[in-house]
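Q: Protein A?
A:
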Amino acid sequence: MIYSLHGKLLTKEMNFAVVECGGVGYGCRTSYSTISKLGEIGSDVTLFTHLYIKESIVELFGFINQQELNCFRLLISVTGIGGKAATSILSDMTPEKFAFAIASGDSKAFTKTKGIGAKTAQRIVLELKDKISSESLDMTASAYTDSSAVADTSAISEAMEALMVLGYSQGEVAPILRKLDPILDTQTLIKETLRHIVSGK
């Protein structure tokens, strides 16, 4: 498994980058968002990667951060969504906007991507809402129920877990969750946390 690549940027195109590591150039399919954040040709870059294997297709995908990679992995888990469609979606929205669209049930946000129709968009929201809420994380309970970070309630613990599935750290979301009303349900807590992250407040 190739977890990440770190080396010299040899090529960058609309949705493709080549990174040289130890004398070998690794070609990565990627999103426009990642391409726009890479440095100049010849600079050192790091990409978090996913080796996509399906039937006769073997492709390496690379992303600028762990959050975008996590969103990519969630998207390709959806029925009918392959690597190309996933990177197209992530070219049109940031990980924060992607997560907010899932949490708020906004399927229309995905139809803005070329090739994603209303039915596919609805399937993305339906399957990922369920996946995020049921995802099992390999972490100790103290990682997201520490009383010094957030109130220890079932909904807040579930919201913290779901947000960490999306790639956010405890340090990013705990201060926001601490300010929210602990009687809110899990989906509302996730939605409000993402709203704060998107707005930067």
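Q: Protein B?
A:
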Amino acid sequence: MKLECMKSVRIGAGLGFYGDNWEPVAASIERGGVQFIASDHLAELTLAILQKDRQRDPALGYARDVVPMLLKLWPLMRERGVRFVCNAGGLNPRGAAQAVLAAFKAKGWQAKVAVVTGDDVLPQLQNADTGFDHLFTQASVAGVRERLVFANAYLGAQPIVQALDAGADIVITGRVADAALFLGPLVHSLGWKLGGATSEQDLNRLAQGLTVGHLLECSGQGSGGNFGSQGAWQAIPDLAHIGYPIAEVHEDGTAFITKAPGTGGRVNFDTVRQQLLYEVHNPHAYFSPDVVLDMGGIQLLDEGDDRVRLTGARGTVPTDTLKVVAGFRDGYKAEVTWGFSWPDAWDKAQAAQATIRTLLKDKRIPHDELYVEYPGLNSAHGALAPMPKADALNQSNEIWTRLVLRTQDKAAADGFGRLFPWIGLSGPAYTCGFTGLHNTSELLGIWPTLIPRAGVEAGVGMELLS
């Protein structure tokens, strides 16, 4: 069957992280011909941010940008029949939905909002005698169990499909796999087989859909933003008005990656290829709750005019486990940054750092680590950054020094900044003052692990609110 005779759907990228720009989403709705927007608000560490919000106010715990975003987008969506899927629910998806509905009610608007729950598996980690070892170090969860504050499994697309089938205009989830936000609308619209899919055709279609989700989940990064090709990034036009990527997906899985006309950025072979390999450990086994993707046969054909054809993704049956991201209390940090100017800039910075280490020892301040880096020299690449010789560093106009104290003692973190002010008149000659003298924050460690799928999916639910 020719593509033009097949059923197809267009889905646009929403946010790529909590706090991302939603203005390009409006352009996709107005000029991109999309039926769906899928918006990923949860970067890997965002749940830790939301946990701190929830500690201050139990009614929070969700990505609060979802409310102003939807207040801006809903009139455009309603006029064109565009539906919206997001994981902005974070640790409190029902709270996010209620906040959206309250804001809509104040405007006199009505919408069907679905809530997907069941990703919270904290009780299972807290109560289990065995299992849930760290995914990379194989350490036992017993060492952090008493300090765990959240644990969420990465759900798949099935509850999103259920919500869309029930007529939801807006679907708000907690932690789901990023690409599942996109796969759900594709399965709903194109009639693909999801749960229990075992045929090669079914699995390959899901693999194509997963690839589409992976290409769109990072907002403007899929259309030329953050493009790292040496010497080529300068050719990406008009980033100030970048268009987020849009996928046109056909019933057989064939997809075209593009963007709304009249927007900045670039969709071509190179920008799509870079996003394809982003955050991929093994391109032949990219795991998701819905399908395991093999990228080895993917073909990208640049058709010009910001349009790339995607075919060739292959899929196999998903595993019987789901990934979990858990967070635990892991002490406190405090940091101070200040700069030293020519002459002898490097030697001054080293002398000041040695003074702080001496004071920490003399005052017996408990700490796990004093981390030191030099912005402009090695803060981006760390130990991989080649450092100039001391003579050259001493001739530098300025050397900036950032010191971060990590400690289990909050009082030690609170007092770290008090070690510095006297150095202004009694230490090496410096410039530009200190920043961060009163900057203590609680640290949340991240605990990745696996959980049996059956014990999670049995508790997944969908609630339709209006």
